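Ticket #4471: structure output looks truncated?

Reporter: J.K.
Steps to reproduce: submitted the chain below (318 residues) through the standard prediction queue, then opened the result file.
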Amino acid sequence: MIKFIADKLWAFDAEWIPDPVAGRILYKLPAEMPDGEVMQHMWRQAAKSRSLIPTEADIALDSHNFLDYGVERPYLKTNICRLVSVSIVIRRKVGDGKAKLYLRSIPDNWSDLAAAKERNIIGKFLGGLENGMENYDERDTFNSKGFRKGVQLIGYNSMGADLSIFIQRALIHGLPFKKFNTRPMWAKDGVDYFDDKSAYNIDMQKLVGGFGRSNPSLNELAALSGIPGKMGTDGNDVALLWLDGKLDEIVKYNEYDALTTYLVFLRMAHFAGIFTPQEYEDEQQLVIDLIADLSKQERYTHLIAYQEEWSRLKALLQ
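Returned output as attached by the reporter:
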Protein backbone atom coordinates (compact mmCIF):
# COMPACT_ATOMS: atom_id res chain seq x y z
CA MET A 1 0.00 0.00 0.00
CA ILE A 2 1.06 3.65 0.19
CA LYS A 3 4.19 4.16 2.30
CA PHE A 4 4.36 7.94 2.52
CA ILE A 5 3.35 11.15 0.77
CA ALA A 6 6.20 13.04 -0.86
CA ASP A 7 6.69 16.79 -0.71
CA LYS A 8 5.70 16.99 -4.39
CA LEU A 9 2.84 14.85 -5.68
CA TRP A 10 1.09 14.66 -9.06
CA ALA A 11 -2.22 12.82 -9.47
CA PHE A 12 -2.64 12.65 -13.22
CA ASP A 13 -4.87 11.42 -16.01
CA ALA A 14 -4.18 11.51 -19.75
CA GLU A 15 -6.42 11.43 -22.81
CA TRP A 16 -5.47 10.08 -26.22
CA ILE A 17 -6.97 9.25 -29.60
CA PRO A 18 -6.05 6.96 -32.51
CA ASP A 19 -3.06 8.48 -34.29
CA PRO A 20 -3.95 9.03 -37.96
CA VAL A 21 -0.25 9.12 -38.88
CA ALA A 22 0.25 5.69 -37.32
CA GLY A 23 -2.84 4.40 -39.13
CA ARG A 24 -1.61 5.60 -42.52
CA ILE A 25 1.81 4.03 -41.96
CA LEU A 26 0.74 0.67 -40.50
CA TYR A 27 -2.20 0.05 -42.82
CA LYS A 28 -0.66 1.68 -45.91
CA LEU A 29 -3.54 4.11 -46.26
CA PRO A 30 -3.49 7.07 -48.67
CA ALA A 31 -1.89 10.23 -47.32
CA GLU A 32 -4.96 12.23 -48.38
CA MET A 33 -7.41 10.02 -46.46
CA PRO A 34 -9.22 12.19 -43.84
CA ASP A 35 -8.30 11.58 -40.20
CA GLY A 36 -11.80 10.34 -39.35
CA GLU A 37 -11.69 7.69 -42.05
CA VAL A 38 -8.24 6.58 -40.91
CA MET A 39 -9.51 6.18 -37.34
CA GLN A 40 -12.53 4.29 -38.65
CA HIS A 41 -10.19 1.86 -40.43
CA MET A 42 -8.05 1.42 -37.29
CA TRP A 43 -11.08 0.58 -35.16
CA ARG A 44 -12.41 -1.85 -37.75
CA GLN A 45 -9.10 -3.67 -37.94
CA ALA A 46 -8.86 -3.87 -34.14
CA ALA A 47 -12.41 -5.21 -33.90
CA LYS A 48 -11.89 -8.04 -36.35
CA SER A 49 -11.26 -11.52 -35.04
CA ARG A 50 -7.86 -13.17 -35.39
CA SER A 51 -9.36 -15.98 -37.44
CA LEU A 52 -7.39 -16.86 -40.56
CA ILE A 53 -10.69 -17.23 -42.40
CA PRO A 54 -12.84 -14.07 -42.25
CA THR A 55 -16.15 -14.61 -40.48
CA GLU A 56 -19.45 -12.98 -41.41
CA ALA A 57 -18.98 -10.70 -38.42
CA ASP A 58 -15.56 -9.64 -39.73
CA ILE A 59 -17.02 -8.81 -43.13
CA ALA A 60 -19.82 -6.81 -41.49
CA LEU A 61 -17.22 -4.77 -39.60
CA ASP A 62 -15.95 -3.38 -42.90
CA SER A 63 -19.13 -1.31 -43.08
CA HIS A 64 -19.68 -0.77 -39.34
CA ASN A 65 -19.69 2.90 -38.33
CA PHE A 66 -17.56 3.67 -35.29
CA LEU A 67 -17.86 7.43 -35.83
CA ASP A 68 -21.14 7.92 -33.95
CA TYR A 69 -21.29 9.17 -30.37
CA GLY A 70 -22.19 6.51 -27.84
CA VAL A 71 -20.88 3.66 -29.99
CA GLU A 72 -18.53 1.28 -28.20
CA ARG A 73 -15.13 1.17 -29.86
CA PRO A 74 -12.38 -1.44 -29.61
CA TYR A 75 -9.34 -0.62 -27.50
CA LEU A 76 -6.27 0.32 -29.53
CA LYS A 77 -2.72 -0.23 -28.36
CA THR A 78 -1.37 2.98 -26.86
CA ASN A 79 1.65 3.07 -29.16
CA ILE A 80 -0.63 3.65 -32.18
CA CYS A 81 -2.48 6.46 -30.39
CA ARG A 82 -1.48 10.07 -29.76
CA LEU A 83 -1.83 12.16 -26.63
CA VAL A 84 -4.18 15.14 -26.77
CA SER A 85 -4.38 16.20 -23.12
CA VAL A 86 -3.07 15.54 -19.62
CA SER A 87 -4.46 17.00 -16.39
CA ILE A 88 -2.73 16.98 -13.03
CA VAL A 89 -3.71 17.75 -9.45
CA ILE A 90 -0.48 18.95 -7.86
CA ARG A 91 0.02 18.75 -4.09
CA ARG A 92 2.98 20.58 -2.59
CA LYS A 93 4.02 20.80 1.04
CA VAL A 94 4.47 24.44 1.99
CA GLY A 95 5.69 24.13 5.57
CA ASP A 96 4.36 23.25 9.02
CA GLY A 97 2.92 20.06 7.55
CA LYS A 98 0.49 22.05 5.41
CA ALA A 99 -0.13 21.51 1.71
CA LYS A 100 -1.28 23.58 -1.25
CA LEU A 101 -3.12 22.23 -4.29
CA TYR A 102 -3.04 23.24 -7.95
CA LEU A 103 -4.88 22.00 -11.03
CA ARG A 104 -2.85 22.09 -14.23
CA SER A 105 -3.63 20.89 -17.75
CA ILE A 106 -1.59 20.57 -20.93
CA PRO A 107 -2.88 22.26 -23.01
CA ASP A 108 -4.26 24.78 -20.52
CA ASN A 109 -5.61 27.18 -23.14
CA TRP A 110 -7.77 24.97 -25.32
CA SER A 111 -7.88 27.52 -28.12
CA ASP A 112 -4.11 27.14 -28.52
CA LEU A 113 -3.81 24.22 -30.92
CA ALA A 114 -0.01 24.49 -30.92
CA ALA A 115 -0.03 23.68 -27.21
CA ALA A 116 -2.06 20.55 -28.00
CA LYS A 117 0.69 19.14 -30.20
CA GLU A 118 1.80 15.81 -28.82
CA ARG A 119 5.49 16.70 -28.61
CA ASN A 120 4.59 19.71 -26.45
CA ILE A 121 2.41 17.62 -24.12
CA ILE A 122 5.11 14.98 -23.70
CA GLY A 123 7.87 17.54 -23.27
CA LYS A 124 6.10 19.53 -20.57
CA PHE A 125 4.91 16.47 -18.64
CA LEU A 126 8.08 14.36 -18.63
CA GLY A 127 10.20 17.51 -18.45
CA GLY A 128 8.24 18.58 -15.38
CA LEU A 129 8.96 15.24 -13.71
CA GLU A 130 12.66 15.69 -14.47
CA ASN A 131 12.68 19.22 -13.04
CA GLY A 132 11.25 17.84 -9.81
CA MET A 133 14.09 15.38 -9.23
CA GLU A 134 16.57 16.04 -6.42
CA ASN A 135 19.92 14.48 -5.52
CA TYR A 136 20.50 13.50 -9.13
CA ASP A 137 23.97 13.07 -10.62
CA GLU A 138 23.99 12.52 -14.39
CA ARG A 139 27.48 11.00 -14.15
CA ASP A 140 26.14 8.23 -11.92
CA THR A 141 23.89 5.96 -13.99
CA PHE A 142 22.48 4.18 -10.96
CA ASN A 143 22.43 7.21 -8.65
CA SER A 144 24.15 5.21 -5.92
CA LYS A 145 25.17 8.28 -3.92
CA GLY A 146 22.02 8.50 -1.89
CA PHE A 147 18.25 8.63 -1.77
CA ARG A 148 16.80 10.51 -4.73
CA LYS A 149 13.66 12.55 -4.19
CA GLY A 150 11.23 13.69 -6.82
CA VAL A 151 7.61 13.98 -7.84
CA GLN A 152 5.43 11.19 -6.49
CA LEU A 153 3.34 10.14 -9.48
CA ILE A 154 -0.19 8.87 -8.84
CA GLY A 155 -2.41 7.28 -11.47
CA TYR A 156 -5.05 4.65 -12.05
CA ASN A 157 -3.92 1.98 -14.50
CA SER A 158 -1.04 4.36 -15.15
CA MET A 159 1.53 1.61 -15.65
CA GLY A 160 -0.75 -0.14 -18.10
CA ALA A 161 -1.84 2.95 -20.01
CA ASP A 162 -1.33 6.59 -18.96
CA LEU A 163 2.38 6.49 -18.13
CA SER A 164 3.07 3.82 -20.74
CA ILE A 165 1.76 5.99 -23.57
CA PHE A 166 4.06 8.85 -22.53
CA ILE A 167 7.05 6.51 -22.64
CA GLN A 168 6.05 4.89 -25.93
CA ARG A 169 5.21 8.12 -27.71
CA ALA A 170 8.34 9.90 -26.44
CA LEU A 171 10.31 7.03 -27.97
CA ILE A 172 8.40 7.31 -31.26
CA HIS A 173 9.03 11.08 -31.40
CA GLY A 174 12.72 10.58 -30.62
CA LEU A 175 12.58 12.76 -27.49
CA PRO A 176 15.36 12.31 -24.88
CA PHE A 177 14.66 12.36 -21.13
CA LYS A 178 17.85 11.18 -19.45
CA LYS A 179 16.91 12.04 -15.87
CA PHE A 180 13.51 10.40 -16.24
CA ASN A 181 15.20 7.23 -17.48
CA THR A 182 17.93 7.10 -14.82
CA ARG A 183 17.07 4.43 -12.27
CA PRO A 184 18.42 3.86 -8.74
CA MET A 185 20.40 0.72 -7.99
CA TRP A 186 17.74 -0.35 -5.50
CA ALA A 187 14.03 0.51 -5.26
CA LYS A 188 14.57 1.78 -1.71
CA ASP A 189 16.84 4.50 -3.08
CA GLY A 190 14.04 6.65 -4.42
CA VAL A 191 12.46 7.74 -7.67
CA ASP A 192 11.96 5.07 -10.32
CA TYR A 193 9.13 5.66 -12.77
CA PHE A 194 9.69 2.28 -14.43
CA ASP A 195 9.14 0.26 -11.24
CA ASP A 196 5.53 -0.27 -10.19
CA LYS A 197 6.79 -1.06 -6.67
CA SER A 198 8.47 2.31 -6.27
CA ALA A 199 6.90 4.58 -3.65
CA TYR A 200 7.25 7.39 -6.20
CA ASN A 201 5.24 5.61 -8.88
CA ILE A 202 1.85 4.53 -7.55
CA ASP A 203 -0.60 2.80 -9.85
CA MET A 204 -3.66 2.53 -7.64
CA GLN A 205 -5.28 -0.12 -9.81
CA LYS A 206 -2.39 -2.46 -9.02
CA LEU A 207 -2.88 -1.83 -5.30
CA VAL A 208 -6.61 -2.52 -5.22
CA GLY A 209 -7.07 -4.70 -8.29
CA GLY A 210 -8.11 -8.30 -8.36
CA PHE A 211 -7.73 -10.50 -11.39
CA GLY A 212 -9.55 -10.02 -14.68
CA ARG A 213 -13.18 -9.21 -14.04
CA SER A 214 -12.45 -8.44 -10.38
CA ASN A 215 -10.44 -5.37 -11.39
CA PRO A 216 -12.49 -2.28 -10.42
CA SER A 217 -12.66 0.66 -12.80
CA LEU A 218 -11.84 4.13 -11.49
CA ASN A 219 -15.46 5.09 -12.09
CA GLU A 220 -16.77 2.20 -9.96
CA LEU A 221 -14.31 2.66 -7.12
CA ALA A 222 -14.86 6.41 -7.01
CA ALA A 223 -18.66 6.49 -7.26
CA LEU A 224 -19.10 3.80 -4.59
CA SER A 225 -16.79 5.84 -2.33
CA GLY A 226 -18.86 9.00 -2.73
CA ILE A 227 -16.49 10.54 -5.29
CA PRO A 228 -17.61 11.64 -8.78
CA GLY A 229 -16.83 9.05 -11.44
CA LYS A 230 -17.62 9.59 -15.09
CA MET A 231 -19.45 12.86 -15.72
CA GLY A 232 -21.17 13.54 -19.02
CA THR A 233 -18.45 12.81 -21.54
CA ASP A 234 -17.35 9.22 -22.00
CA GLY A 235 -13.67 8.58 -22.61
CA ASN A 236 -14.80 6.40 -25.48
CA ASP A 237 -15.91 9.56 -27.32
CA VAL A 238 -12.71 11.60 -26.92
CA ALA A 239 -11.63 10.88 -30.51
CA LEU A 240 -14.95 12.18 -31.86
CA LEU A 241 -14.67 15.32 -29.74
CA TRP A 242 -11.21 15.85 -31.24
CA LEU A 243 -12.50 15.40 -34.78
CA ASP A 244 -15.28 17.91 -34.02
CA GLY A 245 -12.74 20.46 -32.76
CA LYS A 246 -14.01 20.27 -29.17
CA LEU A 247 -10.68 20.33 -27.35
CA ASP A 248 -12.34 22.28 -24.55
CA GLU A 249 -14.68 19.36 -23.79
CA ILE A 250 -11.74 16.96 -23.73
CA VAL A 251 -9.78 19.09 -21.26
CA LYS A 252 -12.82 19.57 -19.01
CA TYR A 253 -13.41 15.82 -18.96
CA ASN A 254 -9.70 15.26 -18.32
CA GLU A 255 -9.74 17.63 -15.34
CA TYR A 256 -12.70 15.77 -13.85
CA ASP A 257 -10.74 12.53 -14.03
CA ALA A 258 -7.62 14.10 -12.50
CA LEU A 259 -9.66 15.36 -9.53
CA THR A 260 -11.26 11.93 -9.15
CA THR A 261 -7.86 10.23 -9.27
CA TYR A 262 -6.58 12.53 -6.52
CA LEU A 263 -9.64 12.05 -4.30
CA VAL A 264 -9.40 8.27 -4.61
CA PHE A 265 -5.73 8.56 -3.67
CA LEU A 266 -6.61 10.54 -0.54
CA ARG A 267 -9.05 7.81 0.44
CA MET A 268 -6.40 5.16 -0.07
CA ALA A 269 -3.90 7.18 1.99
CA HIS A 270 -6.49 7.35 4.76
CA PHE A 271 -7.04 3.59 4.48
CA ALA A 272 -3.26 3.09 4.77
CA GLY A 273 -3.12 5.18 7.95
CA ILE A 274 -1.18 8.03 6.37
CA PHE A 275 -3.97 10.43 7.38
CA THR A 276 -5.98 10.46 10.58
CA PRO A 277 -9.76 10.87 10.09
CA GLN A 278 -9.43 14.61 10.79
CA GLU A 279 -6.46 14.99 8.45
CA TYR A 280 -8.41 13.18 5.75
CA GLU A 281 -11.26 15.67 6.17
CA ASP A 282 -8.77 18.53 6.01
CA GLU A 283 -7.25 17.17 2.79
CA GLN A 284 -10.69 16.91 1.18
CA GLN A 285 -11.43 20.47 2.26
CA LEU A 286 -8.34 21.59 0.34
CA VAL A 287 -9.93 20.12 -2.80
CA ILE A 288 -13.23 21.85 -2.05
CA ASP A 289 -11.39 25.14 -1.58
CA LEU A 290 -9.43 24.61 -4.81
CA ILE A 291 -12.63 24.03 -6.79
CA ALA A 292 -14.35 27.03 -5.19
CA ASP A 293 -11.40 29.29 -5.96
CA LEU A 294 -10.91 28.12 -9.55
CA SER A 295 -14.59 28.14 -10.46
CA LYS A 296 -14.69 31.91 -9.97
CA GLN A 297 -12.84 32.07 -13.29
CA GLU A 298 -14.80 31.51 -16.50
CA ARG A 299 -12.20 28.97 -17.62
CA TYR A 300 -13.09 26.68 -14.70
CA THR A 301 -16.85 27.09 -14.25
CA HIS A 302 -17.32 23.45 -15.30
CA LEU A 303 -15.88 22.46 -11.91
CA ILE A 304 -19.08 23.65 -10.22
CA ALA A 305 -20.87 20.60 -11.63
CA TYR A 306 -18.12 18.39 -10.22
CA GLN A 307 -18.56 19.82 -6.72
CA GLU A 308 -22.34 19.42 -6.95
CA GLU A 309 -21.99 15.77 -7.95
CA TRP A 310 -19.51 15.18 -5.16
CA SER A 311 -21.92 16.66 -2.61
CA ARG A 312 -24.78 14.54 -3.99
CA LEU A 313 -22.81 11.30 -3.76
CA LYS A 314 -21.55 12.04 -0.25
CA ALA A 315 -25.14 12.68 0.88
CA LEU A 316 -26.21 9.29 -0.48
CA LEU A 317 -23.63 7.52 1.67
CA GLN A 318 -24.45 9.28 4.93
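Triage note (M.O.): checked the attachment and the full C-alpha coordinate line is present. The two ends are 27 Å apart (CA to CA).
Status: closed, working as intended.
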